[in-house]
Specification:
This protein has about 230 residues and is an alpha/beta fold. The chain is built from 8 helices and 9 strands. Helix 6 links the parallel strand 8 and strand 9. The N and C termini lie far apart (about 60 Å).
């Protein structure tokens, strides 16, 4: 019965509504929690229906979702991650792994890609797939990104000094790091560590460019002019 009701509501709410002589289309996401199976008091029942609603949104909207105990576990996991991630840099829990990049045709090493890793004494190893989106959501990604860049360039400088070789390194950027201040920050880090700009490659996903093509290209041009 609840499924039928939810689907009916979704269908009705998708119908365009006229507001001030304009047709406005809206969509809905529905979360369902049932008394007493999911909770036996009003506050918890609403909270769990809310969790189910957000799950419906994450799965693509225009749908309904029933609360499950795993949602509570997922929420608790997320809260724990946020709590520990906020202190990860200060506690030196972040590290970089360097993945070799090889020219297969010439059978030679051409550089390394710096990959961010997080190990927490309580949570253990946490996948970047899990904590990078959280860092973006929490507004920590610029601080973490700055640490990654500085650490990677310090490693390149160390390799140069130790092995007397120029070792290129590739660093991934989050779209949230793309700002007009970025080129200046990168330049400052290169100068600080004494690393030539040509040894640094910055990588970002195409989706970032699609969001603000004009703004992104200006920043990338500035970086490219530095020799990056």
């Amino acid at each position: 019965e609840l499924a039928t009701l939810a689907n009916t509501l979704l269908t009705v709410l998708r119908e365009p509504v006229e507001l001030a002589h304009e047709l406005v289309a809206i969509s809905a996401s529905i979360g369902i929690a049932i008394y007493p199976d999911d909770a036996d008091d009003g506050d918890n029942l609403i909270t769990r229906a809310d969790m189910a609603m957000y799950q419906a949104k994450q799965m693509g909207r225009l749908r309904w979702q029933r609360f499950t105990p795993s949602m509570q576990q997922t929420l608790q996991r997320k809260l724990n991650l946020k709590q520990f991630l906020a202190k990860a840099i200060g506690r030196q829990e972040l590290s970089l792994c360097y993945q070799p990049q090889v020219d297969a045709a010439k059978r030679r090493l051409i550089g390394y890609e710096a990959l961010l890793r997080w190990y927490n004494p309580v949570l253990g190893h946490v996948s970047p797939v899990e904590f990078i989106p959280l860092a973006e959501e929490m507004g920590l990604i610029r601080e973490i990104g700055s640490w990654v860049l500085s650490t990677a360039l310090a490693q390149v400088a160390s390799w140069q000094k130790r092995f007397h070789q120029r070792v290129p390194v590739s660093v991934n950027l989050s779209g949230f790091q793309l700002s007009s201040a970025l080129p200046g920050q990168v330049r400052q880090q290169l100068e600080l560590h004494g690393v030539d700009a040509s040894l640094l490659t910055l990588e970002l996903t195409e989706t970032v460019l699609m969001l603000d093509m004009k703004g992104c290209l200006g920043i990338l041009d500035d970086l490219s002019e530095q020799g990056i």
